[in-house]
Specification:
Length: 397
């Protein structure tokens, strides 16, 4: 769940290598515009871009950093990450903070100069945020992809113009990918070439939690049963539900892993049996999961969760943890319908579901069915399917 990636990004899985062999990789340089910092939380952009970086050049363009100083000369900071991926960050003076058109023009000029210096002449644009359209004008990408991983307009502090920018991006995009089926159903009417790509899984990484691992020091002293959650702690977390569960079940210990973002930490329930351990490195997550008895998706029912497809669902299952979730649509379908994850809407139902889940690790049938489903998905397969669509689109031009 945190900034650092696995020590080495995995090679493509055997399942991704079809018997007839996919076409050789032949895409241009990938220029990705993202609202998420590369070094914050390891999730969908990092999983996909690290795989592109194994095949060619990738430039990951983050939101600008504004200095509290008007004398800072606009410039780009370049940070190299795994497989040579370049993280590109514009540094701007404070006077541009509240002048979006001017800031966009400055960033556009900085990027054009950088493209010349790096000889980036054959490239595709990959967007995670429509707000990047302002700084990416004046370029001629060979392909434009919008990987719509969330309904960002529903998130707290979303820019008011985001919906309008998204419509502009739909007009520019050659391909639209969505982060789940519910989001696909909402977006497919807006683009003729949209494709659903739900959250996937690095099974080998999270599968480590099925074996005996050294207990992290900050979790070792917490009693069992342990009920865990990892993810960004923001407006999507149902803090009222968490508080109700902790009060109703003092015999359980709740372990919450993740950075607190966009909400006041003082609003979090502070029962003695709730343990906030903060953000953790992606590589550490299996060591925490191995010590949990039940994993949860404690998501609230609000606008910010209407279209989410939580990556942690298959990650929890790959770790061998029984899972209880609130009725998030992309968890109900397929995980709830396949009876792989228990779905509970109220605090009472959630508590009862956890009681059942505490014995689920002894259920051989559940384990077998879970593993059979997980065998059908992987980030390698998702990446390869995206590449096939992109190569076909470029070849058709």
């Amino acid at each position: 769940m945190s900034s650092a990636p696995p020590a080495e990004a995995p090679a493509r899985s055997a399942s991704a290598m079809k018997a007839d062999q996919p076409a050789a990789y032949s895409l241009p340089d990938v220029v990705c515009f993202a609202h998420l910092h590369w070094d914050f939380v390891w999730q969908r952009p990092q999983h996909l871009m690290s795989r592109f970086a194994q095949q060619g050049r990738v430039f990951y363009v983050e939101d600008a950093f504004y200095h509290n100083d008007n004398h800072v000369a606009p410039h780009l900071e370049i940070k190299e990450r795994q497989q040579g991926l370049k993280v590109v960050v514009a540094h701007l003076p404070d006077c541009l903070r509240h002048s979006a058109p001017a800031a966009d023009m400055v960033q556009q000029a900085l990027l054009q100069q950088y493209f010349q210096e790096q000889r980036i002449t054959n490239y595709l644009f990959w967007y995670y945020t429509p707000m990047a359209l302002g700084k990416s004008g004046g370029f001629a990408p060979a392909l434009t992809v919008y990987d719509c991983m969330d309904e960002l307009a529903n998130f707290k502090f979303a820019p008011p113009e985001l919906r309008e920018r998204e419509q502009e991006l739909f007009r520019k995009a050659d391909l639209v990918f969505t982060g789940g089926h519910t989001l696909y159903e909402a977006k497919r009417q807006q683009h003729a070439d949209a494709h659903p790509f739900p959250s996937s899984i690095d099974k080998a990484h999270f599968g480590q939690a099925r074996h005996a691992l050294s207990e992290p020091a900050d979790q070792a002293g917490i009693a069992h049963p342990r009920i865990g959650f990892f993810g960004v702690v923001d407006e999507r977390l149902d803090i009222e539900l968490l508080g109700q569960l902790a009060t109703a079940h003092p015999e359980w210990e709740f372990v919450i892993i993740g950075p607190v973002v966009k909400i006041d930490p003082a609003t979090l329930p502070d029962s003695a049996n709730i343990h906030y351990l903060g953000g953790k490195d992606y590589q550490e997550l299996p060591t925490y999961l191995a010590g949990w008895d039940v994993a949860t998706l404690l998501f609230a029912d609000n606008e910010s969760t209407k279209f989410i497809s939580p990556t942690k669902t298959p990650e929890y299952l790959a770790a061998g943890r029984p899972v209880v979730s609130t009725p998030i649509r992309d968890v109900v379908r397929p995980y709830g319908e396949l009876n792989l994850v228990q779905i509970a809407a109220t605090a009472d139902e959630f508590g009862q579901a956890i009681e059942t889940a505490l014995t689920q690790t002894q259920d051989a049938d559940w384990r077998q069915r879970t593993d059979e489903y997980l065998a059908t998905i992987s980030w390698d397969q998702t990446w390869q399917q995206m590449v096939d669509l992109m190569q076909a689109r470029i070849s058709a031009q």
